[in-house]
Amino acid sequence: MNIEIILGSDLGPQQVAEIAVEAEKAGVRTLWHSNFPNDWDPFIGLVPAALATHRIRLGVLAVSPYEMHPIRIANALVSLNELANGRAVLGLGGGGAVALSIGNSPSGSASLDFGKMRIVRGVREAAEIIYRIASGKPNRGYQGQVFRVARPFHLKFAKSPRPRIFTCSMGPQMLRMGGRIADGVQVGDVTPGRIGDAISDIRLGLAKRAYPAEDFRIGNFWAWHIKKDRAASMFEARSQLFARAEVIPPNIGLDHLVQAKVIDAAEAQLVRARFKNFLMAYVDGSGKVRDVPEDLVQRLIDEVSSSGTFDDIDREVERYREFERAGLTDLALRVFGGPMSAVKTIGERIVPHFSPTT
Fold it and tell me: 330: closest CA among 188, 170, 176?
């Protein structure tokens, strides 16, 4: 299993490049740049990293075709890929922060209701368009049910090996679709107890591919809050807990956490009722989840993230080995405050425990 790093989008491009150089030295497979509406454009943000590194892959996630037409996604991706000599990766999803910020009009048209869009079909069509354009070969356009390319399209400058395209998936249909058409699938915040089900769905899709998968990857986004100081770690973990997929109501993870006996049914209902308070711990900068028992908050943190001090790293290595045994090829650690320090710690204390795959 390979270790990857996910950065936020608030870092300047030169900072990203410096971290990319360090991550490459540490043996990190991919450095991912997050995509948020109020920070650096992720493709531009990775340009200096592309010029400063030689081996590490450089990815953007998650980008939605409901925020940016597949033609524009392909153009940005191939441009980055050329600068990186074939090392660019795209995480393509149906939602994401930018698409959600647009609300019910993901294309900018009030006639499109985001809640009613056929998300799986849309992402599949977008991936197919991007594949065609990223090949560097002339194509005659594309006529889908959701997206269309009306005229022939050809990026004549595309000379490097084709960039890789992952789907960012969580639901069973998206997971199967990713297995069927993509270069890999990136899931998010999936705990060891639930990762097996996700991988089973991906493998169902792999079995229906029209062409063999070449080095198919299965990755998992995972929050990293390990720090020298426990109080700083827990402050960060509480502040970010609202964004962990296993915690977000109503349908993603709470029922699973009840089944796993991490919380009981009454506690799950409390999380649903007080979810705004989880969000406010981030928004108001307090790091405090009000009106929710501290013990419950701590159990959630322990289950859905890597938190604590350097003394807890051995425990986290064992958790990551569970992921590896389940079939993950890549574990993408999302770092927050002090990203350079986090990358150095991960490089020294985590990467050596895992044998890189191709």
Answer: 188
